[in-house]
Amino acid sequence: MTLNGWLQIAFYSVALLLVTKPLGIYMLKVYDGSLTWLRPVERVLYRLAGVDPDEDQHWTAYAASMLVFSIASMLLTYIVLRLQHVLPLNPQHMAAVPDRQAFETAASFTTNTNWQSYSGETTMSYFSQMTQLAFHNFMSAAAGVAVAIAFARGIVRRSAGGRIGNFWADLVRGTLYLFLPLSALYALLFVQQGVIQNLAHYVTVTTVEGAKQVLAIGPVASQEAIKQLGTNGGGFFNANSAHPFENPTPWTNFWQMLAILAVGAGLTYTFGRMAKNQKHGWALWAAMYVLFLGGVAAAYWAEARGNPIHAARGVDVVASATNPGGNMEGKEVRFGIANSALYATMTTDASCGCVNSMHDSFTPIGGMVPLVNMQLGEIVYGGVGAGLYGMLVMVILTVFIAGLMVGRTPEYLGKKIQAREVQMAMLYVLVFCGAVLTLAAVAAVTPAGLKGLNNAGPHGLSEIIYAFTSTAANNGSAFAGLTGSTYFYNTLLGLNTLIGRFAMQVPMLALAGFLAEKKIVPESVGTFPVTTPLFVVLLVSVILIVSALTFFPVLSLGPIVEHFLMHAGRLF
Fold first, then answer.
1. What is the pLDDT of residues 231-276, one digit of tens each?
2. Which of 144, 141, 164, 131 is nearest to 60 (CA)?
3. Closest Cα partner for 118 from 89, 140, 96, 138?
4. In 3-state terms, what secondary structure has residue 471?
5. Hey, how many other C-beta atoms are within 10 angstroms of the C-beta on 47?
6. What gap in Å lies between CA 262 and CA 251, rounded to an integer?
7. What is the pLDDT of residue 572?
8. In this prediction, what percent of the chain has a pLDDT beyond 90?
């Protein structure tokens, strides 16, 4: 570890803090209807969809609208991918996407997961990229924030009869006022920095050695902008943000990292304003940052130390003025260890999954950090919307536990937390770990699941666990040693993305509806304060106990035992 590396991490942290308040205020205006400069466009969209944006939907209607929209758009994407060979904007004459892969891709992009078992530049036409994958990048992100805002309304409203807003209005406003303008600005910034943007044929060049090489090009900057802002993560290129056409400079690397966490961080401020308790919003931000910094420190420490087996074989792992040291396997020299560890941590804190280095090449502990981040539920700023509502579920469990400690009915922002609220919160938690561990167990004991492994032993187990954790968490990053383009993995991972999105959002919306029905009760001396350092410590502790320890046994069989084997010199 170097001073320069820590300064870069500190610079990023300060930048994230600085954008939290202004972006949070802007999002508050987006979702309370204060912004009207695109109202004519809104009205046209509502009229075309046949919806009443002023209808205050019950949580069941809100959930049904979200599900219907998602199912319809997923079906459309499946059809387009299957027919892309006869559709326009296909200068490379890409074939139709196989049925298993079309299903997985449609499910993955609908759920904001963007898991890819294919190379984007050799599988998807420009038409598929621009009309389907980019569409979902906007819509899945807007739907995620809409659900988070609906959950916040359920918490702050009083005696609202379970009504939490209008899904269609939230979806349209998030797209028009938040993601489209920010994406346009980001796309221009990326183009200025050298990210390519065109609709031309791929280019054949002659290398220095005299060989012929095909360079994939296309509408990359526009895809990259919403990919990061919407925490989607699906790369135009197989190498993702390690590719120089997608992430050419240290500045594009910084702007990408900032975009990934900016909306999630800003939502904590938005929630504080909605709850009329800004200190609580900052307490949520602080809890997220504690977990974020712990992850970055662990990953940076592990990667900067390097692999002792490499050191034993004569590789210099000590950092110097002319040598980066540490474990540079799978990392871009232009980003280095600090920025690779930072990127890996924050992209799995969020449900982004975009990578600028290959997580499969990290040391066991360095690779465990992204895995644990996702197993926490990606609540550390998190995916757009998903981070906030995941954290608020943990807050409800925290105040419930605190209430048990003092022997009284727990309260959260004036709402009593009773049996059915806790049941929905626990269902939210159990769906995730149940999906990950059950499907990973199936893959680990069946011939079809084992056939996809390129590594045996604990690292192979880590690859399986990572795949099912990533898809259930709607992240999309991967340990590259797993061959996912099979009927077995395309089907199971596609289903897992749907479980991780919708089987968790529905109980969360039910929880929001239950809270919206309740009256506000005045605070008393027995009310647990949710703005203090003690609350932050307790919240972080509950997150680690409820989420991380659930997966501790399987982590012990994967990256932890691999770490000890590495130090015993027996990995290879």
1. 988 778 888 888 999 999 999 999 999 999 999 999 999 999 999 9
2. 164
3. 96
4. helix
5. 9
6. 16
7. 47
8. 63
The residue type found at 353 is: G
Asked if 57 and 65 count as a contact pair (C-beta separation under 8 A), the reply is yes
3-state secondary structure 92-143: CCCCCCCHHHHHHHHHHHHCCCCCCCCCHHHHCCHHHHHHHHHHHHHHHHHH
Task: Give 68's strand partners.
Answer: none
**Pair 171, 143: CB distance under 8 Å:** yes
Question: Which range is least confidently modeled, 75-89, 264-278, 357-371, 512-526?
Answer: 512-526
Judged by DSSP in three states, 337 sits in helix
Return the ∠ at Cα 127 (arms to 95 and 44), rounded to 5°: 145
Q: How far apart are CA 220 and CA 218, in angstroms?
A: 6
**Neighbouring residues of 515: CB distance < 8 A, sequence distance ≥ 6:** 154, 155, 157, 415, 421
Buried b (16+ CB within 10 A) or exposed e, 539-555: bbebbeebbeebbeebb
Distance CA 492, CA 497 (A): 9
Report how far Cα 357 is from the mean position of its chain's Cα atoms.
17
- The CB density around residue 560, as the number of other CB atoms within 10 Å, is 17
Two structure tokens written together for 550? 């659930």
Could you say which DSSP state residue 482 is in?
B
CA distance 33 to 35: 6
21-32 pLDDT per residue, tens: 999 999 999 999
d(CA 178, CA 169): 13
Question: What SS3 string covers 285-316?
Answer: HHHHHHHHHHHHHHHHHHHHHCCHHHHHCCCC
The secondary structure of 241-286 as a DSSP string is GGSTTTS-SHHHHHHHHHHHHHHHHHHHHHHHHHTT-HHHHHHHHH
Rounded (5°) CA angle 444-448-454: 70
CA distance 295 to 318: 22
Kind plus residue range of the DSSP H or E element containing 66: helix 59-82
User: Distance of CA 365 to CAs 89, 302, 341, 376, Å?
Assistant: 44, 6, 11, 16
pLDDT for position 571: 57
- The H or E element containing residue 206 is strand 203-206
Residue 425's Cβ-side half-sphere holds a number of Cα atoms within 13 Å equal to 25
